[in-house]
Amino acid sequence: MRKRTEPVALEHERHAASGSSSAGSAAAALDADCRLKQNLYLAGPGPAEPRCAADAGMKRALGRRKGLCFRLRKILLCVVGLYMAIPFLIKLCPGIQAKLIFLNFVRVPYFIDLKKPQDQGLNHTCNYYLQPEEDVTLGVWHTVPAVWWKNAQGKDQMWYEDALASSHPIILYLHGNAGTRGGDHRVELYKVLSSLGYHVVTFDYRGWGDSVGTPSERGMTYDALHVFDWIKARSGDNPVYIWGHSLGTGVATNLVRRLCERETPPDALILESPFTNIREEAKSHPFSVIYRYFPGFDWFFLDPITSSGIQFANDENAFLPPCSVKHISCSLLILHAEDDPVVPFQLGRKLYNIAAPSRSFRDFKVQFIPFHSDLGYRHKYIYKSPELPRILREFLGKSEPGRQH
């Protein structure tokens, strides 16, 4: 019995020994596999994982691109909608177009005190206030000739008014739209004219600057007429010239036509950067470029101007029938820069071509002075021309009639 059982026990022991060794091998294999996975994890992602990261990045870029396209599309739709809405808004509210013509709400420089022209370097200028109507008050500046600059220091309004009767010619300056009588380029022109020996009287139309009232073409013309009469009542026998710039040329021709109707014409009319009429000017203005070819441009944009009572017709002047620049009976000088971006040069030339052959000018000088684009005078810097003193001296310094072209 011992011999039979002994081998069995030995076999069991061998199996137990082999089992323990296989278990140890298995445990060692598991440990090695864990270490391998840990090393692979520490070494970084496998080839499948970078592909997933790249896909995620691409999706994020596509999402951002789609969001940007959506925002751009939204902005574009808003711009197109606004572009389409503006013509209808102007047509329904003609007052908007009138505001854009006058621009009286634009005041540059903003912080200037119009009661103190000295702040603009005009130490020889007095500030007045005139009242052509009960509810209208006009702010006026009077600059004396340069030879009186020292004598003008500390003088009151009465002294300035008496000075108008001195032996110096007077220029009534009618400024354009936007800004005030204290605009920088306007002040520089006053200084030039003063240095040439002229009194310069200028004012803000009703609704401009510190002048009280509501702007209108009729009101602006009446304001100019009132200031002209105020000057004539104090000027004695001194010549009085009218100088209009830009929109002020429309006021100037309206004024001169009225003066000629009542047989009290000025001694000369000077138009700087003039247009033919406000419709042609509005159509030629750089702001109209984006709508110039819009269907019904005249109906949407130009007719509201007329319906607002604004014409400033330098060529026809139908606002004061039968007014026309062809009927103005005084010497006429037109100054225009070829590079004018606001009032195209060809409008000034066209106005001259209308006036020059007119019978009403056969006894007066008619002159057109262009300024080459290389000079860079554009719309409001003709005062910088070193030729301006000679031009004015030759044009205004001769009293004998005769046309010059």
Brief digest:
The chain is α/β, with parallel strands linked by helices.
The tally of strands reads 8
In terms of DSSP E residues, the strand content is 5-15%
Low-pLDDT residue intervals, each spanning 5 or more residues: 1-5, 318-324, 399-405
CATH architecture level-2 label of the domain at 117-396:
3-Layer(aba) Sandwich
Q: What does the radius of gyration come to?
A: 42 Å
Encode the helix/strand succession as letters.
HHHEEHEHEHEHEHHEHEH
CATH class type of the domain at 117-396: Alpha Beta
Spell out the CATH superfamily of the domain at 117-396: Alpha/Beta hydrolase fold, catalytic domain
Figure out the total of helices: 11
Largest beta sheet, briefly? 8 strands, mixed
Keywords:
405 residues, alpha/beta, Rossmann fold, eight-stranded mixed beta sheet, 8 strands, 13% strand, elongated, transmembrane helix, monoacylglycerol lipase activity, lipid metabolism, hydrolase, membrane
Describe this protein's structure.
With 405 residues, the chain is α/β, with parallel strands linked by helices. The protein has a domain at 117-396: Alpha/Beta hydrolase fold, catalytic domain (Rossmann fold, 3-Layer(aba) Sandwich), CATH 3.40.50. It contains 11 helices and 8 strands. It has helices spanning 2-43, 48-92, 94-102, 157-163, 184-195, 217-235, 247-261, 278-284, 297-307, 345-355, 388-396; strands spanning 125-133, 136-143, 170-174, 199-203, 240-245, 268-272, 331-337, 366-371. An 8-stranded mixed sheet has the order 1-2-4-3-5-6-7-8, sandwiched between helices. Helix 5 (184-195) links the parallel strand 3 (170-174) and strand 4. The model is unreliable at 1-5, 318-324 and 399-405 (pLDDT under 50).
